């Protein structure tokens, strides 16, 4: 099998990097090297930014309707190429093909939302705000935007960034994850096939040096980041020091509350899918279940369901979860499982040392379940990012809310109940940015904003929805008066009155 060499994308063309530093991209189910990705030089990053800066001069003036038609073409191309994109995701990330296709669909939602740019970017108008004075706003693009994405959603996360940034008239520099870049690069090719002009969308690759250069660069006006809390906090501070607008969507510890009045099978099935799907490598995965009152008696059913989850390579369509993205990720998850055991959590299902027939070298960790977990334990304090579910029991809804609100993260939470009063009370009192009611992973549809909070988010504005339009534009307010040709001035007005 030939090994792909991942190019940069600059000035509308794939460009081979001249870097001396390259990394292997590995199929996590087999350890087969499927591609090589460069760590771009500072000069190559500078070239990409310069291309975007030059393209902004003309792109910002392209009519909204033309930008809309490009997005319409892009959404059609993504839909037509879903299977190809999903296969590339599975090959380099490891998630199952149905899950990968679902990811493409969630990314497609954002592009579809961008197709409404002709109404999304409208300003406001007050006619005759004062005598013959009109006041109106213009929502104008910022300039060069940039995005840095994590490995776990190589299609969806770039779609959270560049479609709306470009549709609002900005140009863009994207740095995808070096662990699984091929599907992202195919998405960029489709974007150019849809009609995005040269220089409007550029791609560079690399690690911390490239990310820091992007954060520091004075020609980049806004930066969107999705990834770990450690990296996101560092980049947020660097970008802010450089005077740019910044959003960091970061780590999480998501809780699923199950009330005893919930539909038992529905709640448990949804919990298991959200906890173990994609091998737990989702920032919105429910890694903690809080069983309230008599729902603690459902633990045996959760154990049984955990043991029925099927592990296999992502190409095995009946598999519930695939491998972790790398041997390092596997080692870390298994180390945290060991820590949980040592710290006194009750290990009910152990996924360490999991073997899949025919794939002896895969990064597999089986579904793992802990009971008797407390807030002081490492497996609760850290984001495991693997197929590990922690069970916490409380007596009341009040205790559940208090327990969740004490966690420093606020990305997502969910509750399963048949009581409207309980659901409304939960959504009102919980201090978490995204809430699901009988929905296990409450990632909102793309025309609503992604609204993680507290330790999971830095910056006032999140991706998608109205907040994304505000993030990628700046408001210019115009106050205008037009005099009649024969109007005679009534004299000097030295006050600030508009009368």
TrEMBL record:
Protein source organism: Halomonas campaniensis
Molecular function GO terms recorded: methylmalonate-semialdehyde dehydrogenase (acylating, NAD) activity
Entries under Pfam families matching the protein: Aldedh
SUPFAM superfamilies, per the entry: ALDH-like
PROSITE patterns to which the protein is assigned, alphabetical: ALDEHYDE_DEHYDR_CYS
Domain of life: Bacteria
Residue intervals of the Aldehyde dehydrogenase domain: 16-478
GO biological process assignments: L-valine catabolic process; thymine catabolic process
EC number per UniProt: 1.2.1.27
Protein name (database record): methylmalonate-semialdehyde dehydrogenase (CoA acylating)
Keyword terms: NAD, Oxidoreductase
Family, similarity comment: Belongs to the aldehyde dehydrogenase family.
